[in-house]
Amino acid sequence: MDAEQTTFLRELVSGTPWFGECRGFARSLRRAPRSPGGLLLVGTPEEEPWHLAAHLDTEAGLANLPQLVPTLVRHQVPDGAPPHLAVPLARLEQARKGEAVFIVAPDDPGAPLLERVDDARRRGAAILTLAEDEETSSELLTISHDALLVPENGIVPGFDAAQHLLAATAGEGDGRRGGRGNRGSGPRLGFRDRLTALIDQVSGGSADTYR
Of these four, 76, 132, 145, 189, which has the most CB atoms within 10 Å of its CB? Predict the structure, then answer.
C-alpha cells in the first residue's frame, strides 16, 4: 500500500469512533516498548503477521522511532531461518517491564500463547492486542492492557487494511512527521476506482516482503 492509498484509507475512516480508537492504540504501541527490540510481535498458530512486521519496520525508520521496530515471535521456527526470523515463543517467557507483547489475532490465539502472554503480563510487560473477533479473542482481551478490534460493519475494508492504517498511524504519532500523504505520484483516481484499488491491494500480497 503506497502513501496515497494509506491517505485514502484514512479519509474513509476519519471522523469515525474507530479511527479515534486506532489513534489511541497507536499511541500505546509507540510508548509501551521503551527500547529497541522490546516490541514483541506475535500472531496466531494459523496466521503470522508478516505484513504488519514489515510496515512497522518501515514506519519506525521513517519516524525515527527505533522502539517501534518489531521483534517477530514465531510459533514454529523452520530450520535454517535467519536470526530475525528465528525468535521462538520462548522469547515471551523473558518479556518484562519496559517491553510490550503485541498480539495480532485474526483467529483463535490458542491456549499455549495465552498462557505465555498472561505470564508476561505478570512480569510487567505491556499486553497489546489487535483482534478481529471479540468472541474468539475474549480471553486474550481480558488480559490485554489495550486492544483494538476491527469492526464488522464495513468501516474498515478488512483486517489487512486495519493493520496498514495502524502501522502508518503509529509512525505519524505526536507530530513527528507531516505531509506523508502527498508523496504519492501519478494521476489521482476517482473515489470508486481508489476504493477498488485499495481493496485489491490489501487483499493480496506475500509474506516475502518481510522475509
Answer: 132
Cβ proximity of 137 and 129 under 8 Å: yes
HSE (side-chain half, CA atoms, 13 Å) at 158:
12
Q: In whole angstroms, give the CA distance from residue 22 to residue 28.
A: 10
Residue 172, number of CB atoms within 10 A of its CB: 21
pLDDT at 161 over 90: no
Q: What is the pLDDT of residues 32-54, one digit of tens each?
A: 999 999 999 999 999 999 999 99
DSSP state of 77: -
d(CA 117, CA 109): 10
Strand locations in the chain, DSSP E?
39-42, 70-74, 87-88, 100-105, 126-131, 146-149
Given CA atoms 34, 172, 86, 112 in this order, what sign does their dihedral have? positive
CA 189, distance to chain mean position in Å, is 27
Pairwise CA distance, residues 189 & 204, whole Å = 20
User: Does 203 or 135 have the greater pLDDT score?
Assistant: 135
pLDDT band at 2 (very low <50, low <70, confident <90, very high): low
- Helices 17-31 and 3-13 sit at what angle, rounded to 10 degrees? 130
